[in-house]
UniProtKB/TrEMBL annotation:
Keywords assigned: Signal
Organism name: Glonium stellatum
Signal peptide start and end residues: 1-19
Ranges of residues in domain BTB: 43-93
Coiled coil regions in record: none
InterPro entries in the record: BTB/POZ_dom, SKP1/BTB/POZ_sf
Record bears the keyword Calcium: no
Domain of life of the source: Eukaryota
Protein name, UniProt field: BTB domain-containing protein
Length: 236
């Protein structure tokens, strides 16, 4: 009888599976209270996706000594989405029964991806926002934009970030379109805080509103294409 070949098979496996081998590190996310969560994740998987974790695993003395990274200011649920995305290249940013949560999750996911320096996750989050707010068939958006989402985007990203640009163009495009979902948005009192905190947003919005609605909608539709081209295969 011929002997079965028992040589190494690892070489034929995809990188994503190979990166699940080797040592793990603890990632502790959230403030020190009942909501805090700890994940134990393969270092190779984290380093493969994130420059932040690559630095933490390879260079940061304290992290290497304790074999633990703590992220007290981040949100466990959003980090959970990132973990899901790392393993499957997909995750539940949009809960289908509740689109409104999808927008806030998407904003926070983008911000986390920016901090951890994971280009793929940022693009993923942006595509989800795009699905909710710019449906392909030209129908009205699936939900409205809340000032808190714009404030979060403006509080936590650098001026002129893709996320800021996305919200500016989306708000300008739908400002006077008359969809019920968007009208509701204008009545919300939180807008006053936004005007106060982020004058640059207010000024840019007013400047955009000088253009016709068709022009503003076209700008919004074009912006996603621009993001995709700029970011193609770039990890940052
Ligand atoms: C944005 O920052 C301001 C000022 O620091 C703060 O009062 C507000 O709660 C923040 N809002 C969000 C949504 O992060």
């Amino acid at each position: 009888m011929r002997k079965r070949y028992m040589g190494p098979i690892l070489l034929t496996l995809p990188v994503s599976i190979l990166s699940l081998t080797g040592p793990a590190i603890e990632v502790v996310v959230g403030p020190y209270d009942a909501t805090q969560r700890t994940w134990v994740l393969p270092k190779a998987l984290l380093s493969y996706h994130s420059f932040f974790f690559r630095a933490a695993c390879e260079h940061d003395f304290k992290e290497r000594l304790e074999n633990r990274v703590t992220l007290p200011e981040d949100i466990p649920e959003i980090f959970g989405l990132f973990v899901q995305w790392m393993y499957s290249e997909d995750c539940d940013i949009i809960k289908h029964c509740n689109y409104e949560d999808g927008v806030y999750n998407g904003v926070r996911a983008w911000v986390l991806g920016d901090k951890l320096r994971v280009r793929g996750f940022k693009n993923f989050a942006l595509r989800q926002l795009h699905k909710l707010l710019i449906p392909l068939d030209g129908n009205e958006p699936l939900c409205h934009i809340e000032p808190i989402e714009i404030r979060y985007a403006y509080n936590n990203t650098l001026p002129e970030s893709e996320l800021q640009r996305f919200f500016l163009l989306a708000t300008a495009a739908y400002w006077d379109c008359g969809h019920d979902k968007i009208k509701y948005l204008i009545k919300s009192e939180d807008w006053e805080d936004l005007w106060e905190e982020h004058r640059d947003f207010r000024n840019d919005l007013l400047r955009n509103l000088l253009s016709s609605r068709e022009v503003r909608l076209a700008r919004l539709r074009r912006v996603m294409g621009d993001f995709e081209i700029e970011n193609k295969d770039v990890r940052s």
